[in-house]
Amino acid sequence: MGRLFILSAPSGTGKSTVAQRLLESIDNVRRVVTATTRQPRPSERDGIDYIFMKKEEFLEGIEKGYFLEYAEVYGNYYGTPREQVEKNIKCGHDSLLVIDVQGAFKVKKEFPQAITIFLLPPSIEELKRRMKRRGYTDSNADLRLETARKEIPCATSFDYIIINDFIDKAADQLRCIILSSRCERDMVLKSIKKGPLVSKEIIELIQGGECYGKEA
Ligand code: ADP
Ligand code: 5GP
Predict the structure, then answer these.
(1) From ligand 1's centre to the CA of 193, what distance in Å?
(2) Which of 5, 46, 115, 183 is 20 to 30 A from 93, comparing alpha carbons?
(3) Is 130's C-beta closer than 6 angstroms to any atom of ligand 1?
(4) Which of 8, 76, 99, 107 for mutating ligand 2's site (highest number of atoms within 8 Å of CB)?
(5) pTM assigned to the model
(6) What is the pLDDT of residues 55-101, one digit of tens each?
(7) Using CA positions, which residue lies closest to atom 10 of ligand 1?
(8) In terms of Cα–Cα distance, which of 107, 108, 91, 98 is closest to 159?
(9) At the fourth CATH level, which superfamily is domain 4-183?
């Protein structure tokens, strides 16, 4: 079974930037490409950054149960394609889902084993600067900042919190979370049983050997 990592934060904190940096430096993690009805930004490519959909197409997708969760965010629809997530988990691929806070809660409810990570801006002033850099108008940024103030308290419900003061540091911490989860005892014991990761003798010792020195 692959694991699902959910990276969430208020808009403008740096989710996409940190996720991109992580994917350049880790093997075997697939990004879940979510769908949206908003217009692509100049650098964005269909099917890579988002699946860009017409509103009618998106509404039809909702009817057909195509989305694991969906939300209307700042006037556009966004949704997580159910099939991508389920397929990755079933095929044993780790996946990274980058979504807003309300979406993260909905997915966690359906996949309680998902690992949730909250990216925290170092300050509201810095969040404002990042939004400006992204080209939001003042009123647009004000609305997002108001939402951010309601989303930041949700950090306490996530499994991990990463402070995004420096991109490299934040991406490194995210990488460490994913790598260390790959060494969780039960995960490793299951993989050992399935494949030729260690010798037959080690498997036999792990399965039937007596642990020396453990207090009764
Ligand atoms: P989100 O996906 O959370 O909405 P983005 O990844 O689009 O946010 O980042 C918003 C802006 O902030 C971008 O201009 C990005 O380059 C910048 N940014 C992201 N992380 C940092 C950081 N640690 N320090 C400075 N600027 C950052
Ligand atoms: P943007 O338009 O800036 O790319 O994204 C706006 C917000 O929507 C971001 O917080 C982004 O993470 C979130 N988002 C992107 N895809 C999804 C999704 O599938 N579901 C939900 N709920 N939010 C999403």
Answers:
(1) 42
(2) 46
(3) yes
(4) 99
(5) 0.93
(6) 999 999 999 999 999 999 878 999 999 999 999 999 989 999 999 99
(7) 12
(8) 108
(9) P-loop containing nucleotide triphosphate hydrolases (3.40.50.300)
